[in-house]
Design goal:
This protein is an all-alpha fold. It has 12 helices and no strands. α6 packs antiparallel against α7 and α9 packs parallel to α11. The longest helix is centred in the middle third of the chain and has 19 residues. The radius of gyration is 19 Å and the shape is globular.
Length: 255
């Protein structure tokens, strides 16, 4: 187990090379380290070359590299300088229309809860309620397409949990929940012909779904269904190899 040891990119690759040579090793855990996107890709490439990708459990809570942190700080400084002020308050409706990292920073949890509850309570059909709840969550995940700040991800996950707990109060069946997840990432078609997926880039949605499936409001049977369907749909998600692989690993570990 190599979790939360501040392992950097070079160290993780070295560990992967060694792990690949140990036939008896079933799981390699590298959560909470400092690999960054490039480091994670190098680890996956190393294991893939040895035919041992199945042993990695994912890279949850990766802290990124110092270079990535510096780049994010520079971007933030430039944005503050350009605006001449810090982030202003954003309404939930404004955020849904333009779900950026900056808008997320100005979003109030209490206002989001009131907004989400109003959105869901106005819909009479539970399957449509589920579609709307998942749409809001997938739309909310858009900043995760490009941003990997821990505080941004934590706030997105927290507001998503609030939204899906509201959905749970409407008692959706497992099949309704699974269908809504798959509809909102474009893997199955919605019965509503006007429906459009929340984000063309599925990096953020798949990242958020990895968090969602770990929560108590998702049943074990739902996880099995999602794992089975996502495995069969690998070609459709081919361009999202890393985040798809992490999601499948998470689903498999929870069965």
């Amino acid at each position: 187990m190599c979790n939360f040891n501040e392992i950097n990119k070079a160290g993780a690759v070295a560990i992967a090379e060694t792990a690949a040579l140990i036939p008896s090793l079933e799981t390699l855990q590298l959560d909470g380290n400092c690999l960054g996107e490039e480091g994670q890709e190098l680890v996956m490439t190393t294991l893939e070359a040895a035919g041992r990708t199945a042993i990695i459990s994912g890279f949850d809570e990766d802290e990124g590299t110092e270079d990535e942190d510096e780049e994010e700080e520079e971007v933030e400084e430039e944005e503050v300088e350009a605006d001449g002020s810090t982030q202003s308050k954003v309404t939930p409706k404004e955020f849904i229309e333009s779900p950026t990292q900056e808008a997320m920073a100005g979003l109030s949890r209490s206002e989001w809860l009131e907004f989400a509850e109003g959105e869901l309570s106005a819909i009479p059909d539970v399957s449509e309620i589920a579609d709307r709840a998942l749409y809001l969550c997938m739309r909310m995940s858009s900043p995760l397409n490009t941003v990997h700040r821990a505080d941004t991800k934590q706030k997105i996950c927290s507001l998503c949990d609030d939204t899906l707990k509201l959905l749970a109060s409407h008692n959706p069946s497992d099949s309704v929940l699974c269908n809504s997840v798959l509809v909102n990432i474009g893997l199955i078609k919605s019965e509503n012909k006007k429906f459009r997926v929340a984000s063309e880039d599925l990096t953020g949605p798949l990242t958020l779904i990895q968090h969602i499936v770990k929560q108590d409001y998702v049943s074990k049977s739902s996880r099995k269904v999602l794992h089975s369907y996502l495995t069969k749909s690998e070609k459709k998600l081919e361009k999202y190899f890393q985040v798809k692989f992490q999601l499948l690993q998470t689903l498999f570990s929870l069965q």
